[in-house]
Amino acid sequence: TLIIILRDAINGMKVTLFYGVFAEEDIITKSVSIENTGEAEFIICKAASAALDFLGGDFDLIHFQGRHAMERNLERTPLGHGTIAFGSRRGTSSHQYNPAVILAEKGTTEAAGSCYGMLFVYSGNFSCEAEKDQFDQTRLLLGLNEELFSYPLASGETFTVPEVILSYSAEGLSVLSQQYHNCIRNHVCRSKYVHMQRPVLINSWEAAYFDFTGD
């Protein structure tokens, strides 16, 4: 893990950037902690975990939206000048908007092309922003949703923003997906069934509508 410490000598803010490397999965993780080392309380109004910056690039933005019984619909939008933003303000990420995003170069398919992925390891409110400026520079930002976020930080307290998992593929979207699958299977999932065949789960709630006993 690479740790970078930033300090604001005027207001007493200390920001620590954490970069974790999982070489076998081609993964970098990024998180941020904000510590109040001053005497006065301050309020955090916006906090993101990760940003990707490009000097140029002609990208499509890929994200996933949906609803009950129609989850994870892929939406691919050309990233022109200006900002594209999506996220959740409902208290959960849920099936409405998935806290994951991909920047794909034009023409990228499942089997070819370059693509950059960011996945927020958090199930609450989140925000993703992608922008191309007047110089064709591109920025992708992922973190907490600022619209319903205002966190007072007293002297000596620390606030940690959840992790983002970043990955890159030069061989299309399929390889990017596989890298995320391997990372989550090996480093996020905790069940004893992660690397073995899972038992059958019988889901009976909709058939019985809870009209049954434990016996």
Concise overview:
The protein is mainly beta.
Question: Overview of this structure, please?
Answer:
It is a single chain. Strands 1-2-3-14-10-9-6-7 form an eight-stranded antiparallel sheet, with helices on one face. The protein has a four-stranded antiparallel sheet with strand order 5-12-11-8, with no helix packed on it. The chain has a two-stranded antiparallel sheet with strand order 4-13. The chain contains two helices and 14 strands; from the N terminus they run E-E-E-E-E-E-E-E-E-E-E-E-E-E-H-H. The N and C termini lie far apart (50 Å). By secondary structure, it is mostly beta strands.
As a percent range, the share of strand residues is over 45%
- The number of helical elements comes to 2
Q: How many beta-strand runs?
A: 14
Can you give the mean pLDDT?
94
Structural class: mainly beta
**CA(first)-CA(last) distance:** 50 Å
Helix content: under 10%
Strand order of the largest sheet: 1-2-3-14-10-9-6-7
SSE string, helix = H, strand = E? Answer: EEEEEEEEEEEEEEHH
Low-pLDDT parts are none
Give the radius of gyration: 20 Å
Main sheet specs: 8 strands, antiparallel
Give the overall form.
globular
